[in-house]
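Structure in, sequence out. Go:
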C-alpha cells in the first residue's frame, strides 16, 4: 500500500511541475509580476502600472509595496564623529610616539672629560705640541 501512495505522490509532483512549466511558457503573467518600467509598480486593483512617485501622497496603495523603499535619512553626525575619532587617534599616536622616543633615546653621559683621558676626542700628538 505504501508503494501505491508514493506513486500517487510522485505523479502529483510531476503533474504540478508540468503545469508550472506550461504556465511559464504560455507567457501569462502572475499578479504583481507584470513588467513595469523603472520607477513604477503593478497595481492589481487597476490592472496597470502605476508611478511610484504617487506613493508619497498615498503610501497605503496596493502598488506601493512593489516600489523600492525610500533611502533612509542620512546620519548627519557621521562626519563629525568620524573626524573626531580620527583626530583623537592621531593625537594619541603622536603623544605615545613622543613618550617612547623620549624614554628610549640614546643618552650620552659624560662622566669623565675626554681631554684628561686622552681618548679619541683629543689625540696624544695634539697634547704634546
Amino acid at each position: 500500500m505504501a508503494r501505491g501512495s508514493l506513486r500517487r505522490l510522485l505523479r502529483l509532483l510531476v503533474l504540478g511541475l508540468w503545469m508550472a512549466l506550461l504556465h511559464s511558457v504560455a507567457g501569462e503573467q502572475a499578479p504583481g509580476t507584470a513588467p513595469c518600467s523603472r520607477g513604477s509598480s503593478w497595481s492589481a486593483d487597476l490592472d496597470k502600472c502605476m508611478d511610484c512617485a504617487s506613493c508619497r501622497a498615498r503610501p497605503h496603495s496596493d502598488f506601493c509595496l512593489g516600489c523600492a523603499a525610500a533611502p533612509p535619512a542620512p546620519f548627519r553626525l557621521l562626519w563629525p564623529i568620524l573626524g573626531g575619532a580620527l583626530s583623537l587617534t592621531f593625537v594619541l599616536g603622536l603623544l605615545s610616539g613622543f613618550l617612547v622616543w623620549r624614554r628610549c633615546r640614546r643618552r650620552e653621559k659624560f662622566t669623565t672629560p675626554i681631554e684628561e683621558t686622552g681618548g679619541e676626542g683629543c689625540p696624544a700628538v695634539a697634547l704634546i705640541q
